[in-house]
Write a structure and sequence with these properties.
mainly beta; four-stranded antiparallel β-sheet; globular; N2O_reductase_N; signal
Length: about 450
């Protein structure tokens, strides 16, 4: 048997094993979907098209037909954040929001939450009218003299938004009343000046940099009370977010949990997994950790308890992970901006079983497709991702820029083991001969 034959048989065995993964379960309650893609670069100055404002940005709403390339006549609906959104924020907070970053929909798909990384604003949009209905400004932390919100994630029961104030190094809780469009900041956890139940400072040698990228629930249930506060410098906190003030019930240091994350995925038994990417310059890869979903008691002063387990480690000098999408209970797609590619991770074997390369090689030179944020369609047929432009507002300058900004749709094939680019909808913002479009945050509205 030749070496090539042996290699081919080994690859075939790996593909066959991974193909045994469960099918993605379609969300049959939804008949359609649309894309909300956010350009985080400032708006074009309406009085001088050759320059940008110092604020604004925009949301492009694409129908599924537009995203898939079936509707080539209709233009996306455009929301210029320099207009109604800025006016609302100036009236509500006395200040102007800058650098729109990420976007989330609540479970009932009625409202979208937008974070502003440059200033710390949170803006809530009503989905049907596509209009802003509330603007709040997260407080500046005296310890950092900054406020900058990275993510605003709704809880499963839709009673709260959990806010990650990155540069303010804080977690906030906003109460929600979607029916009456009323939203109120009700609590703040300062993760610079607080102390944990062990008596250690929240930020210190055990956790050297408490920039907060995301605060998210550990379980997607109506009664869950636990959330994870991710930290850029490593380590993290499990908090009881239903209490006011919010309480730290467990702490982890950077030697046990290294990296930052925005996700918790259900896993076998009473546990969950998340992927910590290492957001430094240059970025260096990612790790997967397995957590217990219960057993967090603030009476236990032990550090790094309940125990977590590192189940996979991927290290590379050229890797920039920013989004993951669960295809089924076995396969997860990991978008790597550095390559750029989609790494397919088998969470039962804990290894990368395939890599889907994204650049358009049909032209010379190849066009770089830097996929950033990704979402799965409710029919389980496609992954939709944002594509960064050549001039980026935020991100690793080595890996983040792309050659074609816009929205990309990939077909999911072989139960998620592989896939291919179906269509790219380009979005451009040319100013003085340069393309400033920088699509980052992306979410699907399902209806």
């Amino acid at each position: 048997m030749t070496k090539i034959t042996t290699l081919l048989l080994a690859l075939a065995a790996t593909f066959a094993t991974a193909s045994a993964a469960s099918h993605c379960v379609p969300e049959t309650q939804y008949k359609n979907w649309e894309v909300w893609a956010m350009d985080q670069s400032p708006s074009v100055d309406p009085t001088n098209s050759s320059q940008q404002l110092e604020y604004g940005g925009g949301i492009y709403v694409l129908s599924s037909e537009q995203a898939l390339g079936k509707d080539k006549k209709t233009k996306p609906f455009f929301i210029d954040l320099a207009n109604e959104t800025t006016t609302l924020c100036q009236k509500s907070t006395g200040s102007t929001p800058v650098v729109p970053h990420l976007i989330w929909f609540n479970r009932d798909q009625t409202h979208a939450s937008i974070s502003f990384l440059g200033t710390g604003h949170v803006v809530i949009f009503e989905a049907k009218t596509r209009k802003p209905v509330s603007c709040l400004l997260m407080p500046i932390n005296p310890a950092t003299n900054q406020s900058g919100v990275h993510a605003v994630i709704p809880t499963y029961d839709e009673k709260y938004y959990l806010v990650a104030n990155s540069f303010g190094k804080a977690a906030h809780k906003i109460s929600t009343d979607f029916k009456n469009n009323k939203f109120e900041l009700v609590d703040t956890l300062d993760v610079v000046n607080c102390k944990t139940i062990s008596g250690l400072p929240c930020e210190g040698p055990a956790r050297p940099n408490n920039i907060v990228p995301c605060v998210f629930e550990l379980n997607q249930t109506e009664t869950n009370n636990l959330a994870f506060v991710s930290l850029v410098g490593g380590g993290g906190f499990v908090i009881d977010f239903r209490k006011t003030p919010m309480e730290i019930v467990s702490e982890y240091d950077q030697t046990h949990y290294y990296g930052a994350t925005c996700w918790a995925l259900p896993y076998s038994g009473n546990s969950f997994i998340n992927m910590a990417f290492r957001p430094y310059i240059p970025s260096t890869g990612f790790s997967w950790y397995k957590f217990n979903a219960t057993g967090y008691l603030n009476e236990d002063p032990s550090v790094n308890m309940p125990e977590i387990t590192k189940v996979m480690d991927f290290t590379s000098n050229a890797s920039d992970i920013h989004a993951i999408t669960q295809i089924n209970d076995r396969l997860v797609w990991v978008a790597d901006r550095a390559i750029p590619s989609i790494k397919v991770v088998d969470v039962l074997q804990w290894k990368i079983v395939n890599e889907i390369f994204l650049n358009d090689t049909s032209v010379s030179p190849p066009v770089r497709r830097t996929a950033d944020w990704t979402e799965i369609t409710p029919d389980c047929k496609h992954i939709v991702g944002s594509l960064r432009g050549p001039i980026t507002v935020k991100g690793d300058p080595m890996f983040t820029p792309g050659g074609l900004p816009g929205v990309m749709v990939l077909d999911i094939e072989r139960n998620g083991l592989t896939g291919k680019v179906n269509h790219v909808y380009p979005l451009h913002k040319e100013i003085a001969g340069l393309d400033y479009m920088d699509v980052h945050g992306l979410i699907l509205r399902k209806f």
